[in-house]
Amino acid sequence: MKVFNRNGPRPRTSLLPSQFICVTWKVATGMALSAFLLTPTLAWSQPVPGSLEVHWNEGASDCSATPQEPLQVHQYEPQTFILRQSPCADFEANFIYLLIGSDKALLIDTGAVADPKAMPLAKTILELLPDKDHKKLPLLVAHTHRHLDHRAGDPQFESLPSVQIVPIDLEGVRAFYGFNNWPNGTAHLDLGDRTVDVIPTPGHNKTHIAFYDDRTGILFSGDFLLPGRLLIEDSAAYHESALRVVDFLKTRPLTHILGGHIELNAAGRAYRFGSHYHPNEHRLELARADLTALPTALERFNGFYARYPNYILTNPIHNLLALAIIAVAVLIFVVWGVRRLLRRRRG
Ligand SMILES: [Zn+2]
Ligand SMILES: [Zn+2]
Hints:
Layout: H1 17-20, E1 21-24, H2 30-38, E2 71-77, E3 80-85, E4 95-100, E5 105-108, H3 121-128, E6 131-132, E7 135-136, E8 139-142, E9 163-165, H4 170-177, E10 186-190, E11 195-200, E12 209-213, E13 218-222, E14 229-231, H5 235-249, E15 256-259, E16 285-286, H6 288-292, H7 294-299, E17 305-307, E18 312-314, H8 316-346
Parallel strand pairs: 5-8, 8-9, 13-15, 14-18
Antiparallel strand pairs: 1-10, 2-3, 3-4, 4-5, 6-7, 10-11, 11-12, 12-13, 15-16, 17-18
């Protein structure tokens, strides 16, 4: 069990990774154990409430006929922003999150569009960042995982002062957060009066991590858990990740689970892959029940496709292989049929 006093003073930190992050392992240290013994009732502070009353940009059936703002900005609460890329700008229509602390800010993902003219992400983020000591608050740009739709906007931040970008490869991720027993353990980002826990969640992708924000009680789940297709690359790793996150959140408040995309409509049906039009979208937020059902759903997964009310499990590689086998079988059957027909005619 991980133990630390959330109400105690937090050290001031700079953006250096070694100072920015501390890693706590599941095996309690002597210090943690004595803190636990001295603190018989650990109460997590109440999450700051926020609003998700917003209609997300649903794109259009003909994007060229209906010009759209590329980026929608929603203020969940004064220090938490949710940005949604228009489905017309890119069919992935990513959600991007900005968390502001008193010393630093954290950007979770940079979305699917690189071109600043088409997607003014860095400009928008800089406008949202408050000043501190006559300068913009330092910003850490992190990713839920290395898929291009979660990091294509990185180059917009590369030359900005006081911005640090977390590497995208697995070794870089492990080194940056200080994980030396990946995927076990959690890392902590101290933003100043706001701590964000980093939980390894491989399975969709080797580099996947989720972020738990102690200020709002939100789990930012990327593509690990979202109202859409959970694309499974490694089902054993995914299952372990689901168990790990369930365990991590067992004793913590959880207000919402916010992922990287919405791919379902309100009735739970998936939009066509690549669609720029999302009429009547499912709500972005998922709840604890969706998470707690995930380990069992993954255990029962048939390896191809399984539909649940708020998400779909699918393994694209297995489905492609199955399609290829069906295509080959159909081809063999057609060739066999044609040869038989020709033989009969000759006969
Ligand atoms: Zn992904
Ligand atoms: Zn994605």
